[in-house]
Design goal:
Blueprint: H1 4-18, E1 24-26, H2 33-39, E2 43-50, E3 53-59, E4 75-80, E5 86-91, E6 100-102, E7 107-108, E8 135-140, E9 144-149, E10 153-157, H3 159-167, H4 183-195, H5 201-204, H6 216-226, H7 239-259, H8 278-287, E11 289-290, H9 301-304, E12 322-327, E13 330-335
Parallel strand pairs: 7-11
Antiparallel strand pairs: 1-8, 2-3, 3-4, 4-10, 5-6, 5-9, 8-9, 12-13
Helix pairs in contact: 1-7, 4-7, 6-7
Length: 340
């Protein structure tokens, strides 16, 4: 499932391609036909992310509707990609267009690439390529097309309904104000929520009502970097440790949103694929692949993580074996020596 940094990149991509322009919205698959008809022809006002939730705002026209919110949006398209959702893009060549974002499967983050431009020239204006697969929703602007496939949620909300969804979400480390008016308030809200529960801190980090956008990778890596036992009850974790972990997630997740890759290791803890670390690096490369492995200068997956998918391998810091167990239906990775 894409983590919060990927959804923020999606929001930015959609905003850059369509903001301020009228957009055709259809549902080639047919399952979103009613919702698409409400949005079709409207002006794309803005796109934003809150954790793993993507919101795309539309206005009907130049005349403001009294039901519109402060952004001018009268309707919001809410999308949750879930395990299998993805957006694919194509354009006329007038702007850089990523090929696909979402549904990572064996890759981490998203694949950014520029596909060939669509048909254009003497025969007429640019025309978007036909939809491929079961496209739930298609957005077509003057210069680009975006196709949504396989989402867990795809629905149209009023501004009031959107506010209701946001009220149920925890603070988001990537949003400028954390979703709580300021990062300080967001930090305090996160710490207080974790400490008033007996549920393990490792399980709470995956609860989008506690903190929005954290998935299995950021969960494992942030806990390791903070030296926190993931199986400790939230109320037993020191306040200062939780606050420091929030601060670390702000840096890590914003870096992920900017670069499109997750890298949590510090340079001194990477083995460079040489010496005694070679065998461990080869093993991890077989388990998971950072989609930027082939990018010049990128940190590959084999060196990008401390504990995620490194169970049975040696801890990069202390040499103890990395552990794994199932917690609430998801695999948890940690070092029993560094995190105790």
């Amino acid at each position: 499932m894409p983590e919060g940094h990927t959804v923020h990149r999606l929001a930015r991509t959609l905003h850059e391609l369509f903001a301020g322009r009228p957009v055709r919205v259809t549902s080639p698959q047919g399952r979103f036909a009613a919702g698409a008809s409400l949005l079709d022809g409207g002006t794309f006002v803005r796109a934003e992310a809150w954790g793993k939730q993507l919101f795309v705002g539309f206005a009907a026209g130049a005349t403001a509707d009294p039901s519109a919110d402060a952004s001018g949006a009268e309707h919001w398209l809410r999308v949750h990609l879930g395990l299998y959702g993805a957006w694919t893009f194509a354009g006329d060549g007038s702007a850089d267009v990523v090929h696909a974002i979402g549904a990572p499967r064996r890759r981490i983050g998203e694949r950014d690439s520029t596909p060939p431009p669509g048909p254009q020239g003497p025969a007429g204006p640019w025309a978007p390529p036909p939809p491929r697969g079961a496209v739930r929703a298609r957005l077509v602007g003057p210069h680009a097309v975006a196709d949504l496939t396989g989402p867990t949620a795809c629905e149209v909300l009023t501004p009031a309904e959107k506010a209701g969804v946001e009220a149920r979400l925890g603070p988001d480390p990537i949003r400028p104000d954390g979703g709580r008016g300021s990062l300080d308030v967001a930090r305090a809200a996160f710490v207080a929520r974790v400490r008033r529960s007996r549920v393990t801190v490792g399980q709470q980090l995956m609860d989008q009502a506690v903190i929005a956008g954290v998935g299995n990778i950021y969960r494992a890596e942030a806990l390791f970097r903070a030296g926190i036992d993931p199986l400790a009850p939230g109320r037993d974790v020191p306040q200062d440790a939780l606050g420091a972990m929030w601060d670390d997630l702000v840096v890590l997740m914003r870096d992920g949103a900017a670069s499109g890759r997750i890298v949590t290791t510090r340079p001194e803890h990477r083995d460079g694929g040489t010496g005694s670390g070679q065998r461990a690096s080869d093993e991890l490369r077989r388990r998971t692949r950072q989609n930027t492995d082939d990018d010049l200068g990128a940190v590959p997956a084999a060196e990008a993580f401390y504990v995620y998918h490194r169970d049975g391998l040696s801890c990069r810091v202390c040499g103890a074996p990395v552990l794994r167990k199932e917690l609430a239906g998801r695999n948890l990775f940690w070092c029993g020596a560094c995190q105790n």
